[in-house]
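re: ur question from earlier - yeah i can do the single chain one, its not a big deal. heres the input i used so u can compare w yours
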Amino acid sequence: MPLSTNDLDAILLTLKLASLTTLLLLIIGTPIALWLTRTESWLKRPVGALVALPLVLPPTVIGFYLLVSMGPNGFFGQLTQSLGLGTLTFSFTGLVIGSVFYSLPFVVQPLQNAFEAIGRAPLEAAATLRANPWDAFFSVVLPLARPGFVTAAILAFAHTVGEFGVVLMIGGNIPGKTQVVSVQIYNHVETMNYAQAHWLAGGMVAFSFIVLLALYSGRSGKTRAL
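and the output i got, formated as tokens:
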């Protein structure tokens, strides 16, 4: 049975959401991971725990508090309304914000591990050559931490594609606007349309397997190189 127009729209919207979320997470997660790697502040553990919170919280809990905060009576909702932007709930922008919060640890933790593996010696050597912090990051840290960036990007993209609870709470179920693949599968199951659900669910299984295979293949290649 071919995919319906709503199914195709959900797939395209999911890919758009995952791509934008991954880009934003790499921009946001990199300085956080660097700070967690280098700081000696007492805030390191609380911040690390806060970043990792989505790993243990139910997605509906995160979605609920984001929904409240971005709603018309919430702090961020009142702020966006005062700026003339309206509320971000039940919008694509709201989905992006929720996805960034929910997938943050899947970017920060791989990057933090990569930065810790580099150590301080290469940066100290760069400093002796009078490299400024930006030069040291782009010429030393970025190339050495490339496997960590690849892992972080793959995990963020895949995790965003598989979201359900957060996106449903924040975005609802608006075709062409907030209806992503996971929500569309739920719709098909709810209406007993198992044939259509199989098409989308089977695609998700294949996608997840390919992602995991790529991750494990990359790690195996790195281990052999060492």
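DSSP finds twelve helices and no strands in the chain. not sure if urs matches, ping me
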